[in-house]
Amino acid sequence: MTQPADPIMTFFGRYVSHEMSNPDSGLYLPNLIREMALDPYSFGGMHVDKVTETDDIICMRSDDFEVQPSCYGLPDINLAGMTVIGLSNITVNHDPLYNDVNHYELSFTFTKGNEGSSLTFSGDFRLDQRCRYPDAAPGHQDFTATGTGTFTAMVGTAYVNVYGTMETDGNTVEARVDQIQFDARAFIGNVKNITISVNITDHEAWNFYAEQALNAVQTIDQMTSQLSETLNQEQIRQMFAKKITEKINEVIS
Fold first, then answer.
1. Pairing label, strands 103-110, 90-100
2. Contact at 8 Å (CB) between 129 and 59?
3. Quick one: 189 exposed, middle or buried, by C-beta within 10 A (0-12, 13-18, 19+)?
4. Which residues pair with 200 in a beta bridge?
């Protein structure tokens, strides 16, 4: 049987939630994010799985008009140097929830900035496509076509849930963060929530096909899942908990 929420901890939780929305408070959430060096935030790279389409234009050669190669298999896409800007565009979604005793759940949302997006992902892009000549084309070697450039993903709406515990010994309060869960869906209802564009600097004609691959729902889900895993690292959870603990005790001391 679960125990009811501690009224003292409920009070502190609501206080923290209120102060996180107050620009004049040391607990103001956007400032905490910046103090933790999370905006902008770099989180490595990823291999894009489950690419389902390609186009022979990627393999076409301008120096050979007699015989042209075609795509063999699906392209291999890698993103590197990924950075997210806008994590400080964060606001408290509602008062904290206490499920039992001292366990809390804080819910946040990312609000749209001046450019119509709450978050922006960007980084380096690389596409490798295997190409094969027809069997009746002797002297032509199979090859891999490569295009490199950059990509940008614009996110309309995203959410973060923070789960943890808050305890007191009567003099000080200690906050712990057990999980940070990031969520940004490709579509919200029938409205597209995330749009990804590509700028392949050496093969501009490939951009359309690269954008098709990156804007697939499974690709977007993979990208946001990786950011969620990164934000949930123990180092970030401990840093977030330490900031909250320090700020609360500064206020109550």
1. antiparallel
2. yes
3. exposed
4. 149
Task: Give the CA count within 13 Å in the CB-facing half-sphere of 222.
Answer: 17
pTM: 0.82
Q: From CA 220, how far away is CA 50, in angstroms rounded? A: 11
Question: What is 58-123 written as a DSSP string?
Answer: GT--TT-SS---EE-S--EEEEEEEEEE-TTSEEEEEEEEEEETTEEEEEEEEPP-TTS-SEEEEE
The angle at the Cα of 181, spanning 176 to 182, to the nearest 5 degrees, equals: 135
Write the CA distances from 236 to 41, 172, 177, 231, 242, integer angstroms. 12, 22, 9, 6, 10
- Beta carbons within 10 angstroms of residue 139's beta carbon: 6
Provide the b/e sequence for 55-64 (b: ≥16 CB within 10 Å).
beebbbeeee
Q: What do you get for the CA distance between the two ends of the chain, in Å?
A: 35
Residue keyed to tokens 């007191």: 168
Cα–Cα distance, 225 to 202 (Å, whole number): 30
Distance CA 108, CA 93 (A): 5
Instruction: Identify the burial level of 162 via C-beta atoms within 10 angstroms of its C-beta, where 0-12 means exposed, 13-18 middle and 19 or more buried.
Output: buried
Average pLDDT value for residue range 201-206: 85
Instruction: Supply the pLDDT for residue 16.
Output: 78
Q: Which residue has the tokens 């049987």?
A: 1
3-state secondary structure of 50: coil
Quick: pLDDT tens for 163-200.
Answer: 888 887 777 888 889 999 999 888 888 888 999 999 99
**For residue 77, which of 54, 49, 117 has the smallest C-alpha distance?**
49
Per-residue model confidence (pLDDT) at position 221: 86
